[in-house]
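Supplementary Methods. Inverse-folding protocol.

Structures were first reduced to a discrete structure-token string of length 79. This string, shown here, constituted the complete conditioning input.
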């Protein structure tokens, strides 16, 4: 599962979410300035700035990936 940690005022976050919507990639938007659960998860993962793209791996661990990596994974059908 893919998670995108965002805020309501982050322009780069909007760009990432637009890409995800255009490519129909399944993801969960975690808006940390509107959702306490998202805020707590961001703290748990030591996220201090946005945007952050996290890929939940099969073992339940989270891996931070860049927007570039996201595009590469999509291009190579690895999502």
């Amino acid at each position: 599962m893919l998670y995108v940690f965002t805020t309501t005022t982050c322009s780069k976050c909007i760009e990432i979410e637009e890409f995800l919507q255009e490519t129909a990639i399944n993801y969960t938007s975690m808006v940390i300035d509107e959702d306490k659960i998202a805020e707590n998860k961001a703290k748990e993962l030591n996220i201090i700035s946005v945007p952050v793209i996290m890929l939940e791996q099969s073992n339940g661990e989270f891996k931070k990936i860049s927007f570039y990596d996201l595009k590469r994974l999509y291009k190579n059908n690895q999502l």
